Amino acid sequence: MAGGVMSAQDGGTEFPGRLTRQVIFCSLIAAFGGLMFGYDIGISGGVTSMDSFLEKFFPEVYRKKHEVKEDNYCKYNNQFLQLFTSSLYLSATVCCFFASKSCNTFGRKRTMQAASAFFLLGSICNGLAQNLAMLIVGRLLLGAGIGFGNQAVPLFISEIAPAKYRGGLNIMFQLLVTVGIFVANLVNYFTSHLPHGWRYSLGGAGVPALFLLVGSLIIVETPTSLIQRGKKERAMKTLKKIRGKDIDVDKEYQSIVAATETAQKFKHPFKHLVKNCMPQLICGSIIQMFQQLTGINVIMFYAPVLFQTMGFKNDASLLSSVITGSINVGSTLIALFFVDKWGRRALLVESVIQMLICQVVVGIFLQVDLHATNVMPKVPAYFVVVLICAFVAGFAWSWGPLGWLIASEIFPLETRSAGFFCAVAMNMIWTFIIAQAFLSMLCSMKAAIFFFFSAWIVIMGIFAVFWLPETKGVPIDEMEETVWKKHWFWKRFFDHEEESGDAKA
Ligand code: BGC
Fold it and tell me: Which candidate, 424, 474, 482, places its Cα nearest to that of 5?
């Protein structure tokens, strides 16, 4: 996951504030959470394509991989191999629930410390794994780290950042996720040449985890979290510290107190969310489901396996995923610069067309050129790599970052955390489903799997055109009035409020 949730004080008002050393330092430390998430996404694919790893933990897959008569599309079809990748997201989904509670009860900083401890334990467990059980336990621990980290880190960053830098920092988090994926692809490329290289790849996650752990001991707690937990004096001191001594923080402080008090009046934000914010809840969650149904994580998790299926040697497969990884980073930068210029929907719709063409043509190439036991000819194989790069680029400047950005900006303050939590959980559930199902689907559907994702891309395109309102440039606290209550379809959900004059009770 990436993106962020707006903090309690975010009401569209500008307070004096610059990027102080404290803010930069704290955001940088917290951003290691994004890097960790990306690293975990990117590392499993390369590792599952390494012979030494397969031989040790999945001897059956290793044997099938090297059997000439085994069906190309089914070489990696193994529930446990998929579980190795997917278990992380299952645990992350479950831990999201606890993380949301922990953020409120213990604060963002403590929750981040818990995340980094889980990350560290998970990477040690994986790097030293002696058997499949240890490997899965390690993945579950990493998943716990992601569940905790993905709730706490974006919240933390958006709460300490001055309002005018919040949007940029929001996409920066997604950027760091892509950097993490890219670093993982590179690490896999180099470690695959070493004996037991997979141990370095999996154990390598311990490096950013250690940074996050040490860093999370020295960063500040956010003023919002301190106020929420009744520590007003410390909150004031912290605000002064992060905004700089020469800045008058009184107004910002008062606004955080007021916003926090308003939010605390809603004892059951989830009930309120379902009752009064259904359109936002549907859109925020469905975008996450669609994001995963583009098939992006098929590439992020299984690109090396997919490239090997097409007949590339191990090295070439890993190198190809380094290329897709770097395109992912570069294209996310494009979103960073153009999202507020061109708007969300323009990027989403353009990318739907681009991703659709890529998926359909890849499907056709595989249908024509990759049969049960042949090796795909070189030219179409290279074409497929180029198309996959174009697909990744389309995703990375649209549904990737915008899925998170939109989820963070459409909810009114009192349901913002609850709404964002639903988006994170939805993302994790669908990531789990795709990770667990893809290799089996590839085996049974063969090249048609790409047409399956194409069909979803058409559906999400229609959704983006007709049901997703444009949120570019709309102040966050005016979103409901100017966007949702005026939308041709969603406005009907608010009619009862207008009639009863009871908007938020
Ligand atoms: C998605 C991840 C995906 C990543 C790729 C994120 O927005 O949530 O599932 O792996 O983008 O860059």
Answer: 424
Tell me which DSSP letter residue 200 carries: H
State pTM to two decimals. Answer: 0.88
- The torsion region of residue 5 among left (phi > 0), alpha (psi -120 to 50) and beta comes to beta
**Is the CB of 158 inside a 6 Å radius of any atom of ligand 1?**
no
First to last CA, the chain: 32
Q: Whose CA is nearest to atom 4 of ligand 1?
A: 400
Residue 176 pLDDT exceeds 50 = yes
What atom in ligand 1 is closest to the CA of residue 297? 10
Distances (CA, A) of 313 to 66, 195, 304, 307, 309: 12, 18, 10, 8, 9
For a pocket test of ligand 1, which of 37, 173, 291 has the largest count of ligand atoms closer than 8 A to its C-beta? 291
Residue in this structure with the two tokens 């955080």, named with its chain if needed: 256
* CB of 175 shorter than 6 A to ligand 1: no
Whole-angstrom Cα distance, residue 456 to residue 355? 11
Following CA atoms 239, 241, 244, 249 in sequence, which dihedral angle do they give, to the nearest 10 degrees? 20
Do the Cβ atoms of 62 and 320 come closer than 8 Å? no
Residue 151's SS3 state is helix
**Ligand 1 site, residue 405, Cβ cutoff 6 A:** no
Mean pLDDT of 189-193: 92
Lowest mean pLDDT across 228-232, 252-256, 375-379, 471-475:
471-475
The per-residue pLDDT for range 75-120, each reduced to its tens digit, is 888 999 999 999 999 999 999 889 888 998 999 999 999 999 999 9
- The 10s digit of each residue's pLDDT in 25-39 is 888 888 888 899 999
* Mean pLDDT of the 305-326 span: 87
Binding site membership of 400 for ligand 1 (Cβ less than 6 Å): yes
- In the structure, what pLDDT confidence band is assigned to residue 14 with cuts at 50, 70 and 90? low
**Mean pLDDT score across all residues of the chain:** 88
Q: Which of 35, 39, 41 to mutate for ligand 1's pocket (most ligand atoms within 8 Å of CB)?
A: 41
Mean pLDDT of the region 403-430: 88
Reading the block at residue 117, the tokens are 């401890």
Mean per-residue pLDDT for 477-493? 90
- The larger pLDDT score, comparing residue 305 to residue 60, is at 60
| Amino acid type, 90 | L
Q: What is the sign, positive or negative, of the torsion defined by CA atoms of 133, 134, 135, 138?
A: positive
Residue in 321, 350, 325 with CA at minimum distance from that of residue 338: 350
23: buried, middle or exposed (CB in 10 Å: 19+, 13-18, 0-12)? buried
Helices 399-409, 416-445: axis angle to 10 degrees equals 150
